[in-house]
């Protein structure tokens, strides 16, 4: 049973993809702007300190994206299926509880790990990480609810608001010379953009009041699997600097260059895919519908077929990105960020190839969530992260083991996801 004031508008349309796509372009440009300002304002060693905090917040925020995935699927299904008069829950209220628990967990456990992760401004880093994560739990859940009911304009507005608030704080930091502390504030500045959208938009407030079928325990159980998987994915995507630091004796200037190169080469693919998780899950949920009782035998085929279009687009776009990174990447890096940031074309091309593999893992993961296979989703991402972490321990130079870990580790998760999808029955409609 859902709020009739916010009806689902049908299958994911090209216009909705374009709207969210435009928002992700703006978000990506804002992300590049923050990284550019930080890299220009801080020397490579200082940038590596900022990048670790950026990665730490990205790791926890990425885990919170499990709330986006679960709320999208729950709301999308609730809009399409008669749910009766059983127990119901409100995703936003549950997210508020998760936000409080997450913030307390970060602050309470910080004496055990903060000294190993944050080399400077430790107390400020922990405080901002706790508050930022709490805000992002509600941010991610609201994105999921909006995706579930096809409120793509609000979805895109929230994405842009988050990114714009970050770049505003980073620009102010650069202009007044605030230094490292200002860029830490910029990292979490967008975590409360959801509150501004709620205050400004009546349709968004209506969406936030939606109920989904089932108990709070049912929702949190599904969200728990999604959060575990999203957390593992965040280690490879946003939290990779933390993983790299944990498996390296010292990062130094070389580490700062490698982290920047990894971030820049994956952003063109992974920023849009991450921002469009709502579109992807809604698309895969819709694809599961197939008329006729005989469709049950085709469940795995239908689930895998829905991946073909997004996969071809990802590979095609990624191939172009590999060529650009290999041929023009070294010059672009030096020109944009200064002579201290030097990386070869081969390294940048391989890192872009690794980004394609992670992007494909993101696609198979979204399809697995849509098929309500949360355990397989979690197993795939956790397996990929563990494999990548083990590969980072190889006795190779920093650049080589980074490429090997980011290219080969995600293949483990892709295999797990595809195996689960091949066994999924469709939702039958008659």
TrEMBL record:
Its main location: membrane. InterPro entries: Poly_Biosynth_Transport. Signal peptide: none annotated. Keywords: Cell membrane, Membrane, Transmembrane, Transmembrane helix. The keyword Cell membrane applies. The chain crosses the membrane at residues 20-39, 45-68, 94-114, 126-148, 223-244, 256-275, 307-329, 341-364, 376-396, 402-421. It is a multi-pass membrane protein. It is found in: Cell membrane. This is Integral membrane protein. It comes from Mycolicibacterium arenosum. The lineage of its organism: Bacteria, Bacillati, Actinomycetota, Actinomycetes, Mycobacteriales.
